């Protein structure tokens, strides 16, 4: 099982309703091991990330009112891809790590943008 970045609006009763992933997209935010080896890694934490390291110890639930704060943070690792890829262990090989990060960062970015439009939140599980 891997990590996923989806979108949820809250129902009137407070329950989350996970929206379907749009056709032609996926919601993968990395392999299960990425909780610790990438998102919870020292290089990502050193960026001052508040939301990204959470999956290392628990699932993330970014509520609708926090999505605006989350968007710049999700984009932050893109500016530091080489440093993160050089200091994390997965996926294997520096070029593979960089490509994997680029691919997996796109999904949380898209989910956060969709959540903003839907006035919803972003769970990562």
What's the number of extended β-strand segments? 4
Number of helices: 5
Structural class label: alpha+beta
- Please state the CA-atom Rg, rounded to the nearest Å: 14 Å
**Which residues form runs of ≥5 with pLDDT under 50?**
none
Q: Major beta sheet, specifics?
A: 2 strands, antiparallel
Helix content: 40-55%
Give the N-terminus to C-terminus distance in angstroms.
Answer: 10 Å
Strand numbers in spatial order across the main sheet: 1-2
Shape: globular
The string of secondary-structure elements, in order, is EEHHEHHHE
Rounded average pLDDT: 84
Strand content: 5-15%
What is the topology?
Layout: E1 2-4, E2 28-31, H1 34-39, H2 42-46, E3 60-62, H3 67-75, H4 81-87, H5 94-118, E4 122-124
Antiparallel strand pairs: 1-2, 3-4
Helix pairs in contact: 3-5, 4-5
Q: How does this structure look, described?
A:
The chain is α+β, with helices and mostly antiparallel strands and 125 residues long. Helices cover 42% and strands 10% of the residues. The strands form two sheets. A two-stranded antiparallel ribbon has the order 1-2. A two-stranded antiparallel ribbon has the order 3-4.
């Amino acid at each position: 099982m891997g990590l996923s970045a989806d979108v949820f609006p809250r129902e009137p009763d407070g329950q989350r309703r996970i929206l379907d992933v749009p056709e032609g997209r996926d919601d993968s935010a990395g392999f299960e091991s990425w909780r610790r080896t990438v998102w919870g890694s020292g290089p990502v934490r050193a960026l001052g990330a508040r939301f990204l390291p959470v999956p290392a110890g628990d699932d993330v639930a970014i509520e609708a009112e926090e999505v605006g704060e989350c968007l710049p943070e999700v984009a932050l690792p893109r500016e530091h891809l080489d440093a993160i890829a050089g200091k994390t262990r997965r996926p294997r090989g520096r070029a593979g790590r960089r490509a994997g990060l680029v691919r997996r960062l796109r999904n949380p970015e898209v989910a956060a943008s969709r959540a903003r439009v839907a006035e919803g939140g972003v769970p990562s599980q």
